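Quick note —
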Amino acid sequence: MPALAPRAACRDPVALLTIENLRLAYRDKTAFEKVSMQIFKGCITALVGPSGCGKTSFLSCLNRLTDMIPGAGVSGSVRCGDLDVFAPSTDVIQLRRRIGMIFQKPNPFPLSIQRNLELPLREHGMRDKAALAQTIEKALRDVGLWDEVKDRLKKPAQSLSGGQQQRLCMARALALKPEVLLMDEPCSALDPLSSGVVEDLIASWRGRYTVLIVTHNLAQARRISDFTALFWVREGGGRLIEFAPTAAIFERPKDPLTAAYVSGMRG
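Predicted structure written out below.
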């Protein structure tokens, strides 16, 4: 399938995240280093490359989930608009509301479907019952789940299928109205049908949310992303090899390693 040129929303991209010389180490082991790139507002950026090259670790830096990992050390700079992500004064709770995360495996709370969305909203100060109900319905509609669950909102979230649980986790993130969604292989634990539903949802968010998605599925990256970044292991740590519009990565790669990877000769 031919790679597409950036969609209309991303033809004249505006940087939302600016990353400069970012490095992450776990005690004495470098996860990645020397990563500089821009993530563009309203666009979908795919992070690809073999396992162990720092893609997931890179995501975890962007909303400071690394703060929760003993021995993790981060250097360099990440800015989200005018916000210095690593500044001591940055409110990490508000940062993670602004930059949400969807994990590889669905991780609904062991609560009802409704409470899964209600709990984070209440933690962020929403108390009005009508506002809660309206926000929950909108979030579930945004992931195509409302019609499937509207009559069983009090049922346990674990009673949903795997694909529905992943969409519930997406709705939980969207309910907080983030600017950026970080997605770590969100389809890898799903069957092909559920994966297709989630992939279509992600594509539908172009222009509304800024999405970074880690995927090992090159066909998926080619289908849905506007920009692609290839990570690789060099000198004992992950490095950014090439970052460009997806069409250029797949059709006109500049680095020989990129050309070998997207053609299936490496990785």
